Give the backbone structure.
Amino acid sequence: MRRKYRIYDFRYCFLFLMINFIILGTTNLMLPELIADVLFNVFRIVIFIYAGWLLFKINVTYILSVISLAIWLSVFDHILLKGSSFFLDFLFNKNEQLSDVLMAFYGVLISYVIIAPLAILFVYVGRLAGRIYSEKGDRAGS
């Protein structure tokens, strides 16, 4: 039976995105910047694929559900977390100019045009992976 999802069903995805941002997006764990950026984006992709797999697991099959979930997750991750970090940096770092902060935030908004379709793709890949994994399990069990 198909059903609509609730954002609550994906609370761990939002939590993992927040942890990923805090650990790799801000502190970098004393890693070189390139490695921290690569790990940050790899974990972000894994979280989006996991969200798609959860969509399949809770039996949501609407393609619009895939799109809306990807948009919710990417707005939270990219705009709210990453975009707000520039404003927090402005509040706590008195050397920052407001115009620089606004330019950085506008850059985040513009880059969302690139991030959103990729987020949709990865959530859809996760949903397909759940379906393929389920079909393999069904064949092995029969």
Summary: The chain has four helices and no strands. The radius of gyration is 18 Å. The CA atoms of residues 86 and 102 lie 8 Å apart. The first helix runs from residue 11 to 27.
